[in-house]
Design a protein that fits this description.
The structure holds four protein chains of four kinds. Chain A is of the alpha/beta class. Chain A has two domains: 180 residues, 3-Layer(aba) Sandwich (Rossmann fold); 77 residues, no CATH class. Chain A is 33% helix and 19% strand. Chain A contains eleven helices and twelve strands. Chain B is an all-alpha fold. Classes of the chains: A alpha/beta, B mainly alpha, C alpha/beta, D mainly alpha.
């Protein structure tokens, strides 16, 4: 159903040579540290940012060749939940107006039809009816998020890009939102591109997971395998930073503090300055060789990894 | 110990602003020159009416003023003169505009800058007090008071002031002062217009509104709370963003406004400044003088903006950093 | 006001703290912190955990006296012990103090407010940053964007230590930067905060807070909004510093996993009240026979490894955080509670449960804990 | 302390459900009330003029009743030509109101357009528009007006047209910074992602929902400024000419009697100027606070 290949090259390549595909009713998790280009990927797919080069195929149509009017039609099939809770909610509009507007983008409904549709949406996202006459400022974080989701599903999309939908929320509310997203997927047959830095949630909600580092996918595969048998050193470090059941802490102290810096590009494998394997192997030359950046290669059943020395 | 003032980006930023200012000044001069040429009526009507109707003589006068050439050539020669400090001669007095401008320009600048200071002295404390929200009714009262001050018509305020100081206190004889008897150095006479224009220029309310909004925003920033939590003075931490930047912005933005107010105040007080000159020139259609004043005013406005840019560049590390990137 | 005996090794003891704000629009009090008591011993980490809006940040800010705006009420006792001396930060506070207001109803309860506020400011001046330091949720916005990092740390050092020369203070700042594991600290000193990453800013904040060697560090959501890898490293850094310097920390977070890694003692807050309070091992011990339903719900809302593997439905707490304006007759958690049974249901609805001790130093506010 | 127990299930009314006059600050309401009074006064001057309700003909010279102090026949007294001051003040407000409206409409319309376009598009369009606006902003307003007077000898409407043009940059820069601020909040992008038309985003979301306060406060400030400029010009002898009344030339006409101890001739119109400028300031401030939701906790 969906396949993409894009390449964005500015002075700083935010997203560089990424390919993945997504089947119907499937969820692809996209994981990485902040600034690695996850959000850019989402915006590229929606064509909110124009990619420099590449192909985005949706339902067999290449989005990059579409004209504006055609693109608008396709957008009703694809929607995005923004990371920022307030992003989609005009602070001066009441919740009812926000939903009404979203509905009327692609549907013409009369007064009763509109009311019916609004209450249907409210049911779908478990929102109280009394909140309709509130301004976004008066809602709690969880409610805002649910209004955001209602606004997105109002246009009846098939594919939703969820950009860190839980990052600004409390843990208890996160669980609500995740449950809601999963319910909606079943109910409406949605596909998700789930962008997050919370690895547990990604593992839980996705069928496949792609791990991004510095604008590139370094590992991709089924979520269970990525989580429990990671092959790329970076994925390994990411997952080990999770702590479980209280006392058990796995140290990430070996991963240096220094986040990557796009302005000082690394030659060769982008991860090698922070890489454990690189150091353990006595700094092999291949890793730093600018001509020899590791390509994403298939290593098992639908498992891809971009590393010279994957952990086996 | 070295502090990282990044000179290069600041210089770059200032230079860029400077070039834009030059470009704008050129555009202004072209614009006014074209209006001058397109305006109805012959600029030489003063001479022509007084002197002969003989076409040859008119042609001679035209040649003398260079009016027989094409507009572009005229403009270029005017520009050339301008660069050499020659604004042409006044139609009315026949004296060079430049010298006259410098003479009155200084007076007007004194008036403008002085009254700007007076305005700020009134506006800043009120803005600071009302942004603290310590005592809502005091700050509301002060703000109302400031609004009333800035709604006072400046010419009437001028008369009140003159009346009080001449009639009641007999500090100086009103009618003998002024341009005719030369500029009398009398400190009251000197200060009065400055204070009157400072109060009545109508920008106090706007300065307060802007400053209060900025200061309130800054005081509610996280970093002010953090500064308070570590026991540091919140004023030290909010000074740059909360006071220095809005004040500079307002000074640069209000200079043109106060220059305009100076026209009226100079009329009221017989202050021999640019405003009076402009008023006289407008009455007489003295084009070279009007042109000169316009250019002069534009230069002052841009000097204000340039100083704003410099302050910003020094205060805000981000601008200088951006300047480096650009 | 009778002064209770304070145990010597308690650095901070908060008794019956109330922080209310008055809402003009709704003409009612917002009871952000409603009768909260806890204490922190030296070298101990107390974690306050709860959903956003439960009043945990307001508690911390009340301790530091940072709440000055808006009409409202602060009451209770906050005993701070430092260098063998114990002072009450809310000393001389009339029963209820209203901060700046015009409303009659509030004026009635306001006595000697301005005088107290002034005294309190003088008192707090010697305490803020010196005895109690604080680090904030959003490190990037908590650093002054117009002042270099080095100068900001040096300012704190100059204010609170014997160092009075600026040059020495800068050197000391560099040392602190090194201590929080920042690379090439002498260069970072001259950086402005906007050029630094979130993790770096948080470490600068920590360095700034610790540079005055405070008796108590308040960490208000120190890891929220940071990357997972950075979060883990910040927690580790705090742990390390705690051991090195024998820090006393009041840790405020909504993330149970952070609490589990750092805290010795836990206070669970809900709707402005502490609903459970005790040592971590008591509360987290799965064999412990009883826990507050809210604590259980909070713990459960975080998926376990098994749940993730089986892709089970998450056990979310239903409903939303209660507003703190409404005065509920019964238990504040009643609507969202899954564990209420027929035995206590009626009681839960009728009156709010009292805090009762169910173990050694383990308190709980729930009828289920009763007999 | 009085405590109010609220029944379980009953909700405290939300901010949005409280009517606007109850959630507003009382001071704002006072300000707005005062401002509306001034606007009403100005509007009523047109009605009185149309319906011939003026107490006296403002232009009628009556040398028998020169320089009278206020009494029951002439509520504000008469001027040096025996004309009724009250009538002249009422009619004098017409000197600025309609021309002022013209200037405000010009400033707002072009300012909003320029601000929206340059803020939304950015890049080259923004640079060009900013350059033009900077050009207008380079010369002080008063100098431009004097320039126009010197060259064209225009009427009040033409002058107000120029005032309107000189106000465009202010409005444009305010709107532009608002658009840029909103862009940062991502909801332009969110609107695009939803499939809204660019036109809807710009006019509905940005202009209608988020720029109302700016537009209103600029309109009222513009009116205050218009009064200032018109009276100043009339005072200088460039605006409305005698015998047509304008507050500015009334003050100017009264100034000579000032030093003879007769304040009233120029003080009455000056007070009218003061009150009306103040009225528009306060109206703008109050409406701004109301619309910007300066809410109390």
């Amino acid at each position: 159903m969906f396949s993409a290949l894009k390449k964005e090259k500015r002075i700083i390549p935010a997203v560089d040579d990424i390919s993945f595909y997504l089947k119907e009713k499937e969820t692809l998790g996209l994981v990485g540290e902040s600034g690695c280009g996850k959000t850019t990927v989402g915006k590229l797919i929606l064509r909110l940012i124009a990619p420099t080069d590449g192909k985005i195929v949706f339902n067999g149509v290449d989005l990059l060749n579409l004209r504006k009017s055609e693109l608008r039609k396709v957008r009703s099939q694809m929607q995005m939940i923004f990371q920022d809770l307030d992003a989609a909610l005009n602070p001066r509009m009441k919740v009812r107006d926000i939903l009404k507007e979203a509905i009327s983008v692609y549907e013409e409904l009369d007064y009763y039809g509109m009311n019916k549709r609004i209450s249907e949406l409210l049911n779908q996202v478990n929102l109280k009816k009394s909140k309709l006459s509130n301004y976004p400022d008066e809602l709690s974080g969880g409610e805002k998020r649910r209004v955001g989701i209602a606004r997105v599903i109002a246009v009846k999309p098939k594919f939703i890009i969820a950009d860190e939908p839980t990052s600004a929320l409390d843990v208890s509310i996160q669980a609500q939102v995740i449950n809601l997203l999963r319910d909606l997927q079943e109910e409406l047959g949605l596909s998700y591109l789930f962008i997050s830095h919370d690895l547990r949630l990604v593992e839980l909600i996705s069928n496949k997971v792609a791990v991004m580092y510095m604008g590139r996918i370094v590992e991709m595969g089924l979520s269970g395998r990525i989580a429990h048998k990671p092959m790329h050193p970076y994925t390994n470090v990411l997952w080990s930073s999770l702590t479980e059941g209280g006392e058990k802490t796995i140290s990430v102290s070996r991963l240096s503090w220094q986040a990557f810096d796009f302005e000082r590009p690394v030659t060769g494998c982008r991860f090698h300055p922070r890489c454990e394997v690189f150091k353990a192997r006595g700094n092999p030359k291949e890793c730093a060789d600018p001509q020899n950046e590791p390509k994403l290669t298939e290593t098992g059943t639908s498992h891809y990894v971009a590393c010279h020395f994957p952990i086996l | 110990m070295k502090y990282t003032i990044l000179w290069k980006p600041i210089l770059k930023l200032v230079l860029r602003e400077f070039f834009i200012a030059i470009l704008l000044l050129l555009s202004v001069s072209i614009l006014i020159f074209s209006i001058l040429k397109l305006a109805p009526g012959d600029p030489l009507h003063i001479f022509i009416n007084i002197q002969t109707q003989n076409p040859e003589e008119i042609a001679a006068i035209k040649r003398e003023f260079g009016l027989d050439r094409s507009i572009a050539v005229q403009y270029l020669s005017w520009l050339n003169n301008l660069i050499h400090g020659n604004f042409g001669n006044s139609f009315r007095t026949g004296r060079p505009v430049f010298g006259e401008l410098i003479k009155v320009g200084v007076n007007t600048l004194i008036l403008t800058i002085g009254s700007m200071i007076v305005t700020l002295l009134i506006a800043i404390p009120i803005a600071v007090i009302s942004s603290l929200r310590r005592c809502p009714f005091l700050s509301w009262g002060l703000t109302l008071f400031a609004y009333i001050l800035s709604s006072l018509p400046v010419f009437w305020l001028g008369y009140i002031a003159i009346y009080i100081f001449t009639k009641k206190f007999n500090l100086f004889p009103f009618l003998s002062a002024g341009a005719a008897s030369g500029f009398r150095i009398n400190w009251i006479y000197f200060l009065l217009p400055i204070i009157v224009l400072g109060i009545g220029n109508g920008s106090i309310s706007e300065i307060i509104r802007h400053m209060r909004a900025q200061l309130e925003r800054v005081l509610s920033e996280d970093y002010i709370k953090a500064a308070k939590a570590k026991g540091a003075s919140i004023w030290r931490h909010s000074f740059k963003e909360g006071i220095l930047i809005p004040v500079t912005t307002m000074i640069a933005a209000k200079i043109p406004f106060i220059l305009g107010g100076a026209v009226v105040v100079e009329q009221v007080f017989n202050w021999p400044g640019m405003g009076r000159l402009a008023w006289q020139a407008a009455l007489d259609r003295d084009y070279p003088v009007i042109m000169g004043i316009t250019i002069f005013a534009a230069v002052v406005v841009h000097l204000g903006r340039l100083s704003q840019t410099i302050v910003f560049a020094f205060v805000n590390p981000q601008t200088s950093e951006k300047g480096e990137a650009a | 006001m009778e002064k209770k005996k304070v145990v010597i090794n308690e650095v901070l003891k908060v008794e019956d703290l109330r922080t209310y704000f008055y809402s003009y629009a709704k003409e009612a009090f917002i009871r952000s912190v409603d009768s909260v008591s806890f204490s922190i011993r030296k070298g101990e980490v107390l974690g306050i955990v709860g959903e956003s809006g439960c009043g945990k940040s307001i508690t911390a800010q009340s301790v530091l006296g940072l709440i000055t705006d808006g009409p409202g009420i602060i009451s209770g006792n906050i005993f701070l012990t430092h260098n063998g001396k114990t002072i009450n930060l809310l000393e001389g506070l009339p029963d209820y103090v209203s901060v700046k207001t015009k409303r009659k109803a509030i004026l009635e309860i306001a006595k000697d407010v301005t005088g107290w506020l002034k005294r309190s400011e003088i008192l707090m001046k010697g305490i803020r940053g010196k005895v109690i330091s604080m680090i904030f949720q959003n490190p990037k916005s908590a650093l002054n964007p117009f002042i270099t990092v080095g100068e900001q740390i040096a300012e704190s050092i100059l204010l609170h230590s014997s160092i009075s020369a600026k040059k020495e203070a800068i050197d000391a700042a560099a040392k602190w930067l090194e201590r929080v594991q920042i690379d090439s600290p002498s260069m970072r000193l001259y950086d402005y905060p906007f050029g630094l990453s979130g993790g770096m800013c948080q470490r600068v904040m920590i360095a700034m807070a610790l540079s005055s060697e405070p008796a108590l560090l308040i960490a208000d959501e120190p890891t929220t909004g940071l990357d997972v890898t950075i979060q883990t490293k910040i927690i580790e850094l705090l742990k390390q510093l705690k051991e090195e310097l024998n820090l006393t920390i009041l840790l405020i977070t909504h993330d149970m996993s952070v609490i589990m890694q750092l805290a010795d003692r836990i206070a669970v807050m809900y709707g402005g009240r502490i609903v459970e309070y005790g040592l971590k091992r008591e509360i987290m011990d799965s064999s412990s026979f009883i826990r507050h339903p809210y604590t259980i719900a909070l713990l459960n809302s975080q998926p376990t490894v098994e749940e993730i593997k089986m892709k089970e439905r998450l056990r979310a707490i239903k409903g939303d955080v209660p507003d703190t304006i409404t005065l509920y007759r019964g238990c504040r958690f009643y609507e969202r509670c899954d564990l209420k049974n027929d035995r206590v249901k009626k009681k839960c609805k009728e009156a709010e449960p009292e805090m009762i001790e169910i173990g050694v130093g383990h308190y709980m506010r729930c009828y289920l804990a009763e007999g | 302390m009085r405590t109010r127990y609220i029944q379980r299930g009953a909700e405290v009314s939300e901010f949005s459900q409280i009517p606007i006059w109850r959630r507003a600050n009382k001071k704002d309401l006072i300000q707005i009330g005062f401002g509306l009074f001034v606007v009403f006064f100005v509007l009523s001057s047109y009605i009185t003029a149309v319906l011939h309700l003026l107490p006296y003909d403002p232009l009628k010279i009556n040398l028998k009743e020169m320089m009278q102090s206020p009494d029951y026949r002439h509520i504000l007294g008469t001027d040096f030509m025996g004309r009724d001051i009250l009538s002249r003040i009422i009619v004098g407000s017409q000197a600025y109101f309609m021309p002022g409206l013209l200037s405000i409409i010009i400033a707002l319309f072009f300012g909003i357009m320029a601000g929206l376009v340059s803020g939304y598009n950015g890049g080259m369009t923004d640079s060009i528009i900013s350059y033009i606006l900077d050009l207008i902003d380079s010369i002080p307003k008063m100098v431009i007006i004097l320039l126009a007077i010197a060259f064209f000898r225009p009427g009040i409407y033409f002058i107000m047209l120029i005032v309107g043009i000189t106000n465009i940059p202010t409005v444009a820069s305010l709107i532009k910074s608002k658009v840029i601020f909103l862009k940062k909040r991502n909801f332009i992008e969110a609107g695009k992602a939803l499939g809204l038309k660019t036109r809807d985003i710009i006019f509905k979301h940005i202009l209608w929902y988020n720029c109302k306060a700016i537009v209103i406060i600029q309109a009222t400030l513009g009116m205050a400024e218009v009064i200032l400029i018109e009276t100043s010009l009339s005072y200088l002898g460039f605006g409305v000419q005698e015998p047509e009344p304008s507050w500015g030339n009334m003050v100017a006409a009264g100034k000579d009697y000032f030093f003879m101890g007769d304040f009233f001739l120029s003080t009455a119109p000056a007070a009218a100027i003061l009150i009306s400028i103040l009225g528009f300031y306060l109206l703008g401030d109050g409406l701004n606070n109301l619309l910007e939701w300066r809410r109390k906790r």
